[in-house]
Amino acid sequence: MLTPLPAPDIAENGRRTLALFELMVRKPWRGTGSARRIHEELLAGRSEDRVTLLVEPTHPKVKALYERWGYEYVGDQQPFPDAPIYSTMLRPLPKP
């Protein structure tokens, strides 16, 4: 994180956080709700407390979509020195 988060927010035990990476839907299915259904099915019944993902700040529509899905922006992150800067999003998961 470019701005450090409080220790309780970043504490991990190996089972606290699911990291979601790359959810894509081909053009013919965009705008049909398929992405959200796939996303929600992936998260259903998970044992983790929360899910996180990264969004390029140059894609505000994608960020807004994730906010509608319950994600909250928690700060910016640069995963490694020559990587772009990403907006970090976090969403709590319901207990199964």
Describe the structure.
The chain is built from three helices and four strands; from the N terminus they run αβαβαββ. With 96 residues, the protein is an alpha+beta fold. β3 (72-77) and β4 form a beta hairpin. The chain is globular.
In short:
Helices cover 24% and strands 23% of the residues.
Relevant terms:
globular; 4 strands; 4-stranded mixed beta sheet; alpha+beta
Topology (SSEs and partners):
Elements: H1 7-10, E1 17-19, H2 34-43, E2 50-55, H3 60-68, E3 72-77, E4 86-92
CA-atom Rg in angstroms:
14 Å
Distance, first to last CA: 29 Å
Structural class: alpha+beta
Total strand count, please? 4
**Helical amount:** 10-25%
Mean pLDDT: 93
Total helices: the number is 3
Poorly predicted ranges: none
**Oligomer category:** single chain
Strand order in the largest sheet = 1-2-4-3
Q: What gross morphology would you assign?
A: globular
* Percentage of residues in DSSP E strands: 15-25%
Order of helices and strands: HEHEHEE
The main sheet comes to: 4 strands, mixed
Protein name: N-acetyltransferase domain-containing protein
Domain N-acetyltransferase: 1-92
